[in-house]
Amino acid sequence: MNRYLSVGIFAAGLGLCAVAAQPQSGGFTAAQATQGQAIYANHCASCHGAKLQGGAGPALSGSTFASTWESGGKTADDLYYIIHTQMPLTAPGSLSEAQYLSVTAYILQQNGYKPGNVALSSKNLKSVKLTKK
Questions:
Q1: Rg of the chain's alpha carbons, rounded to an integer?
Q2: Domain 26-127 has what CATH class?
Q3: What residue spans define the domains of the chain?
């Protein structure tokens, strides 16, 4: 086989691996974010505001979200951990894993992250970087 052809095939193979390892867009689906919106309205909005603007709890959108979450190499796993272990304030850990993941997806969507075709899950939380491109 031609040496250059071999290198090209090898490099192309590496490219495919690199693409496959990247999270899809925001690492959540539109359906997941929609589910999260309903859960958020029932369990989070009374403290964090109907539009994530804050109230008794901190804002979960805009510059407050950006300064808290979009620096220092944080991932969706960091956000999910706080939501899962500390919320709702009166009953931490009382929602299902799927509900917490959906709320996380909703918060990401409301902060400009675009949904993809792969749902946010415990397996991909750490691969979803909280930085805007």
A1: 18
A2: mainly alpha
A3: 26-127
Task: Please give the pLDDT value at position 3.
Answer: 40
Q: DSSP readout, the chain? A: --HHHHHHHHHHHHHHHHHHHS--TTSS-HHHHHHHHHHHHHHTHHHH-TTS--SSS---SHHHHHHHHSSTT-BHHHHHHHHHHH-STTSTT-S-HHHHHHHHHHHHHHTTPPP-SS---TTTGGGSB----
Q: Would you say the C-alpha torsion 28, 75, 95, 62 has a positive or negative sign? A: negative
Consecutive sets of 10 residues in the chain, 133 residues long: mean pLDDT of each?
A: 38 34 64 98 97 96 93 94 96 97 97 94 95 70
pTM check: above 0.85: no
Would you say 23 and 116 are in contact if contact means Cβ atoms under 8 Å apart?
yes
| pLDDT recorded at residue 22 | 35
Could you identify the residue written with the tokens 């009374």? 46
Task: Give CA–CA dist 49/66, Å, rounded.
Answer: 17
